[in-house]
Structure formats: C-alpha cells, structure tokens
C-alpha cells in the first residue's frame, strides 16, 4: 500500500510516499515494515523495540483519524506518517 | 520549602519620567510562588498595578508598568533556558500581555544581578536605559529614531566600543505606536500583543545590559548532570523536526490534514502551499541560501533562515511556520520571495508577523467587499496579490493612510471601517488568530476563547491533543480539563523558562522539572507545588484582566468560526456555539474548584 510521508520521515526516506507490502496491516506492522525497508527511519521516526513511532511522529489515516496500535487498515484508509505540528 | 534561592533576586524599578530608580530583593517565598519568567513578571505586574488607583489603566499611558523577568535557569548550564518574559498591558487587547524572548540578553539580565526589571513612567525625550552592575544611566536616543532594533544594537555597540553589549530595542513601528509592535533582542522577538508599542509610549528606544556577574546554581554538580542529560536528549529525535526542518515544516502537514487557515480563514486548504513551504526553498538550494541560527545556550538551533542567492544575506528571513503562514496561505499568496520579504520587513520595522499578516488578510477581505479602497497601497489589495504585501507593511509601520487604521489591529480597525467588518475580523479579545484552524480543533477552540492573552497558540497549546487524535468527540468537561492542563503546562514552561521545543525531551515533566528547579535554585518544590504555581499565576492573570474590565462575556471567538468550513476534509464543520459555551462553563467550574492560596 502507499504510505505518505511528511517531515523527518520524508526527509530521511527521501520520498513523499513509499510503497509498503501487504493489503492490510496494523500500526505495529507498518512500523516494522518501514524500519525494514528504510533503515534510515529507525531511531528517528520508528522505534522497532516499542514497535511504535518516535514522538512527535505519528500515523493518521487520511490525515484525520488516529490509528491505534492493533487496528488494521488498508490502502483505502490512506495511511499518512506525519508529525505533531507545533510552535513557531 | 527549604534553603535559600541561589540566583539573582534583585528587582530594579526604574521611573523614566523622574529618572529615578530603586532596587529591592525578592524573598524565597516569591520565587517559590511564581518561579520566574512569566510567573514572576505577572506577579510583579500585578503588584505594580495594585499601587495605582482602582480601574483600568491605559496600556500606553505613563503609569502602565513594563516588566522584564529573567528565567530562573538563565546563565546556568541548563540548555534552552536563556529566556526572559515581558509582561505589560496590551494596547491590542487592553488586557494582560506576557511574551517571551531569549538568548544573550536574557542571560545578561541575570549576569547584571537582576531577577527582574520594572519600568514605569514616560521619558521626556527618547531614551536608552543602560544598566551595568550597580549603575543605571539614561542616554539620549534621539539619533537612533527610525532605526531597526538590529541597527540600534550596532550603533550602541559602536558608541560604547563594546561588541558584547546586549541590547533589547524597538524598531520604527514601536516608536510610532503600532499596536502590534514587537520588542527585539539578539535577533529574537517578543512579538505578540504590542509590547513594542508600550515601550515606545515610554519613549524607551532600547535597554542596554552590560553584566559580568557569575550565576552559580545551588547544586552545581546535580545541575551539570541534569543539564547534560537534557542536552543529550535535545540533540536526539525528539527535536529533529526543529533542528533539521524548522517549524515551517508544519505547512505541508496542516495542508494534508485540511487544517491550514487560508485567505483570512475562508478556507482550510491552500492550493499554492507548495510554493511557499520553506522545504521548497531548502530543496532548491540553487535559488536560496539557508542560514541557521538559534538562541545562546540552545543545542536545537531551530532557526532556518532563507535568502535568495542574489540578495544581501542581511535580507535573510526566518521561516517560522506562523510567519510564513501569515503572509502565505492567510493572504492567499503563493510567492515565497514576497513572503520572505514580508517577514524580513516586519523584523526590520519591529512588527509581529502574525498580527501583521492577519491584519493585511483582513484588509484584503475588506477591499474585496468594497469596504476600503482596493488601491490604498497601490497594487490591488486582494487575496493572492503578492505585490501588495510590501507597501501594506510599509504603510502600517509608517502609520500612513489605511496603514494607520490597520496599525490598530483587526478589532479596532473593523470598528473604524464599519460595514459589518467585525464579522470577519479574526481575533480573540483583540489579538489576531495564529495559523491553526479552530473549527477542526475543538480543545484548541476552547483554549483560544478562554486564554487570558487573547488568541495565542502558545498559551492555549491545546491543539496538540486535537491533532494527535483528530475527529474524536469529547464532552465539555473533557475539553475543559484538556484546556486547563495545557495552560498550566505552558505556564510552568514559561515560568521556568524552558523553550517548549524541548518539551518532548522529558519523560516525566513535572518530576524532572521540579528536580531541575531544586538543583538550580536551592528551593525544594514538589511537582504538585509546581502545578499550584501555575494556578496562582493564572489567578493573577485573571485578576489583572478583571481590573482592566474583562468579563466572561469576552471569552468568545470570531463569528466566522461558527460558520461551516467550505473546503477540505472538514467541510461543513463549524465551532458549535452551545458546545463551546458548555465547555467554557466547565472550564470556569474546574478553575474555581482548584483555587490555591498565594
């Protein structure tokens, strides 16, 4: 499925969107898949030990719904890895 | 509470009218009560106002106090802590305004042996106030009139033949009383609420500090260890977005989320956003040069400045999200050169970028509705016209023509312009809205409505909870709790004063902050006592506002926010008036229930 990237995720992966295998996956699975496909994200954007995103990065579906750790989503949910906008 | 406060505890009170001053010391109890920074500045402003006749005080009158209070960690090894607060009555809102600035001047305040500086009166001629150790002097500033804060700094250093002189100054906008004029030091601004106009009304062009005192923490070893740990965390992934990208990176995120206020809040997505995102400037290095800077003692160095390769680097403009948003999406402008020029121009005049951009966006809508002359500044005053930004800013700073009306801010300008302009004057209590869409962010909407400062995203930082879990429906009590927690959290940060850009670097903020406070100051405070300090500061803020005539009826949002959004994923969504009122009442009940003794 296509995963849109913003902020540090885009900066480190070098792409605005990446293709990650699997018709359906959970947030934990996406974290593992992103870490495997884009090692540059490990530690800065994804934490493989906690199987979660490193704050302030987070996953929102279509940029407007939170994705909980074990909730499954598909490509049609439009997963987006972005960060908590703040400051300045 | 045990021990004795280890930092500078002296308050210097200066009356510019009589050119007199006095010094006195604050007690341990004062610091335990108010901490420093915003808490201390508000405490001192409250005390100064209590000495005046009852009733509202003219923010620009000679009796109106102007308070500078150092952060209690300034000039110590604690990172991202060289900051100070400024508290005064705002000429925009008529109410309390407290702002923050940072870097060398903040640290120098403590190296001068001062916890705070309180300025009252009005000088008979333009003055520079100079403070060196025990000496206070008043110098003629007439020759500095019309210069920017940076030019003033250079001139004062040359005159003193001292490059290490630290200067806080106003630009031409502050001299002319633009109600959203800023105060600047070391290239950093206390921007919002018009503190620069207050300083200008006192005919105070600059405050010069020259201090060499050593500021020793109460427990140097523990302070050094805690500071080193915090610095290491501040160089990690929690601050990478600020270090590597800068806050301008918010632009693409908020656009994707459909929460980017556009054309004076008539839309929430901006088709031209890619052209003005600072990342675009970074990615096209052939066109722009990126310069990096930051505050003294801060490992994050968040400032990303850009200038066209063919221009003088002195024209480099900070690409902070709010500034780029104010002149970009909010004015419908998709020309990055024009946006960067507008930001640089504001810094040169000493103008708050959020209020300046918000005021111009308001004027563009007024012109499109036929309420003002569409060619008052030459090029058409219309959304999307990049060419009008520069002449509009010039006219506001000069207070000429329509610029003189806009220099009052959108609330007063709308009253002057008439024709129903108040309906699209985007402010809360007179302070122009920052760049987050309240219709999609219910906790933030409440935070903006009740914020004592007006529409400030940094005091009512409730948008974080909304952005983390967008679309979640919450009842009034939950929203009220979120708003109070966010306000208190911000108040502790602003009183300690630590830069909020390292807020992700704490695992247990209240516990770790209390340990840091105790190591630096020698006063033991529990996490609960820190929270109580925030509540006390909030009560003082409310007391000051009540004195100025504030009532709960003023805690409202602009009419436009009760109309549904027209575009994006939140099309059809509006602030629910009844739900907001319910949440506001819950907020009042919860605040009243947690009142703490001073």
Describe this structure in words.
Chain A has 88 residues and is an alpha+beta fold. Chain A has one domain: Ubiquitin-like (UB roll) (Roll), CATH 3.10.20. Chain A has helices spanning 8-13, 27-37, and strands at 2-5, 17-19, 24-25, 46-47, 52-53, 57-61, 65-66, 73-74, 79-83. Chain B has 3 domains: 10-210, 4-Layer Sandwich (Aldehyde Ferredoxin Oxidoreductase,  A, domain 1), CATH 3.60.9.10; 240-426, Aldehyde Ferredoxin Oxidoreductase Protein, subunit A, domain 2 (Orthogonal Bundle), CATH 1.10.569.10; 438-593, Aldehyde Ferredoxin Oxidoreductase Protein, subunit A, domain 3 (Orthogonal Bundle). Chain B is built from 23 helices and 17 strands. In chain B, the strands form 4 sheets. Chain B has a 6-stranded mixed beta sheet with strand order 2-1-6-3-4-5, with helices on both faces. Chain B is globular, with a radius of gyration of 22 Å. Chains A and B meet through strand 7 and strand 9 of A and helix 8, helix 9, helix 12 and helix 19 of B.
Write the layout of secondary structure elements.
The complex is a heterodimer of chains A (88) and B (598).
Chain A: E1 2-5, H1 8-13, E2 17-19, E3 24-25, H2 27-37, E4 46-47, E5 52-53, E6 57-61, E7 65-66, E8 73-74, E9 79-83
Parallel strand pairs in A: 1-9
Antiparallel strand pairs in A: 1-2, 3-8, 4-5, 6-7, 6-9
Chain B: E1 10-15, E2 20-25, H1 28-34, H2 37-50, E3 66-70, E4 83-89, E5 96-102, H3 104-111, E6 114-120, E7 127-132, E8 135-140, H4 149-160, E9 166-169, H5 172-175, E10 183-185, E11 188-190, H6 195-201, E12 204-210, H7 220-234, H8 240-245, H9 250-257, H10 273-276, H11 278-283, E13 288-293, E14 303-308, E15 317-318, H12 321-327, H13 336-349, H14 353-368, H15 389-398, H16 402-406, H17 410-417, E16 427-428, E17 431-432, H18 442-450, H19 463-468, H20 476-496, H21 509-521, H22 527-547, H23 577-593
Parallel strand pairs in B: 1-6, 7-12
Antiparallel strand pairs in B: 1-2, 3-4, 3-6, 4-5, 7-8, 9-10, 9-12, 10-11, 13-14, 14-15, 16-17
Helix pairs in contact in B: 1-2, 2-20, 2-22, 12-14, 13-15, 18-20, 18-23, 20-22, 20-23, 21-22
């Amino acid at each position: 499925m296509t995963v849109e990237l913003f902020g540090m995720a885009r900066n480190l992966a070098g792409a605005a969107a990446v293709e990650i295998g699997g018709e359906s996956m959970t947030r934990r699975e996406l974290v593992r898949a992103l870490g495997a496909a884009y090692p540059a994200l490990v530690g800065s954007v994804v934490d493989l030990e906690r199987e979660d995103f490193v704050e302030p990065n987070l996953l929102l579906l279509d940029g407007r719904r939170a994705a909980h750790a074990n909730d499954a989503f598909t490509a049609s949910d439009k997963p987006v890895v972005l960060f908590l906008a703040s400051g300045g | 509470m045990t021990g004795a406060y280890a930092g500078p505890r002296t308050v210097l009170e200066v009356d510019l009218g009589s050119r007199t001053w006095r010094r006195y010391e604050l007690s341990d109890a004062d610091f335990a009560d108010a901490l420093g920074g915003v808490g201390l500045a508000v405490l001192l402003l409250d005390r100064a106002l209590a000495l005046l006749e009852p009733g509202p005080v003219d923010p620009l009158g000679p009796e109106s106090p102007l308070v500078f209070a150092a952060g209690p960690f300034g000039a110590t090894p604690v990172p991202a802590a060289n900051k100070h607060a400024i508290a005064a009555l705002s000429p925009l809102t008529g109410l309390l305004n407290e702002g923050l600035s940072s870097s060398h001047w903040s640290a120098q305040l403590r190296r001068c042996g001062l916890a705070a500086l309180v300025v009252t009166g009005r000088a008979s001629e333009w003055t520079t106030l100079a403070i060196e150790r025990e000496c206070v002097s008043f110098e003629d500033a007439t020759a500095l009139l019309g210069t920017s804060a940076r030019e003033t700094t250079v001139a004062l250093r040359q005159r003193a033949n001292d490059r290490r002189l630290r200067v806080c100054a106003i630009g031409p906008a502050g001299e002319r009383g633009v109600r959203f004029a800023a105060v600047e030091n070391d290239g950093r601004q206390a921007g919002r609420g018009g503190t620069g106009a207050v300083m200008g009304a006192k005919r105070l062009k600059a405050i010069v500090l020259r201090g060499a005192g050593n500021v020793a923490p109460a427990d140097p070893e523990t302070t050094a260890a805690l500071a080193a740990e915090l610095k290491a965390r501040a160089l990690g992934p929690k601050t990478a977005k600020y270090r590597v990208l800068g806050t301008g990176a918010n632009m693409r995120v908020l656009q994707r989320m459909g929460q980017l206020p556009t054309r004076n809040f008539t839309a929430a997505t901006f088709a031209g956003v890619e052209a003005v995102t600072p990342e675009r400037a970074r990615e096209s290095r052939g066109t722009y040069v990126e310069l990096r800077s930051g505050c003294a003692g801060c490992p994050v160095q968040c400032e990303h400045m850009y200038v066209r390769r063919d221009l003088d680097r002195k024209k480099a403009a900070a690409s902070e999200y709010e500034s780029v948003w104010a002149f970009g999406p909010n004015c419908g402008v998709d020309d990055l050169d024009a946006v960067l020029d507008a930001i640089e121009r504001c810094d040169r005049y000493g103008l708050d970028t959020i209020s300046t951009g918000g005021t111009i966006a308001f004027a563009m809508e007024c012109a499109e509705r036929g309420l003002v002359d569409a060619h008052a500044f030459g090029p058409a005053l219309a959304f999307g016209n990049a060419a009008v930004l520069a002449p509009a800013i010039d006219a506001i700073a000069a207070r000429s023509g329509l610029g003189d009306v806009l220099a009052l801010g959108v609330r007063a300008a709308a009253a002057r312009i008439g024709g129903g302009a108040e309906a699209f004057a985007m402010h809360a209590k007179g302070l122009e809205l920052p760049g987050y869409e309240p219709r999609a962010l219910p906790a933030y909407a409440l935070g903006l409505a009740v914020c004592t400062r007006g529409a400030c995203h940094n005091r009512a930082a409730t948008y974080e909870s909304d952005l983390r879990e967008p679309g979640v429906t919450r009842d009034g009590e939950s929203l009220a709790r979120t708003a109070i927690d966010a306000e208190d959290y911000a108040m502790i940060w602003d009183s300690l004063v630590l830069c909020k850009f390292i807020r992700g670097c704490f695992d247990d903020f209240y516990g770790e902050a209390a340990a840091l406070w105790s190591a630096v100051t020698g006063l033991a405070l529990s996490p609960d006592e820190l929270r109580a300090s925030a509540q006390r500061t909030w009560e003082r803020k409310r007391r000051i506002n009540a004195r100025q005539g504030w009532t709960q009826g003023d805690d409202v949002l602009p009419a436009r926010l009760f109309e549904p959004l027209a575009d994006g994923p939140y099309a059809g969504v509006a602030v629910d008036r009844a739900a907001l009122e319910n949440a506001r009442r819950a907020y009042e009940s919860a605040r009243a229930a947690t009142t703490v003794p001073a």
